[in-house]
Amino acid sequence: MLKKSMASSLGLFLVVLSITLPAQAAEPTLSNSSEQNILSYASLKHSLSASSSYGAKMWIKNNQLVPQGWVITDSTSTQFEITCVIGATYRSTLWIKYNQQIPDGWAVIDGSGTSLQMIYTQGAGYGDKLWVRNNQIMPQGWVITDSTTDKFEITSIQRAQKGAKLWIRYNQQIPAGWVVTDRFNTKIQITFMG
What we know:
194 residues, alpha+beta, three-stranded antiparallel β-sheet, signal
């Protein structure tokens, strides 16, 4: 009898012990999705370095970061089409999806539905003019010279010669190297001092 009760107590003890002791941790392994993400990132990095010129396009998963110098131009429920903006020339235009940062040197000129049309502004000559939407930061090297209810006319001051004069809207910062030389109504004249 004593042997039976000891055996059943020992059996119960072993069952309780096996339930309460932690199991040995297995070696961590990458799941299939982690391996695929690493492979797709390496593949994406390789593809980008091979095709980083203006207008190059490729599709990425919509959970991946959009690389510097690329913008989202189309999308599905699982993917983004991205387009390279590196190497654009003055007045190049591109339609992009809303809700992303406008790259340096670009300005928004139109919008429709879920897209914006932007134009590249760098490389302009002095006095070149563009009409852009008025709800954005002006690109470097441009000043506002006229406006409507929803658009600004902007004029390039890039490559201005010393002594160049330009009438601009009064409610903006005076660019470096320029001074105010006259005022009339809602405009001021600025002159480039070099």
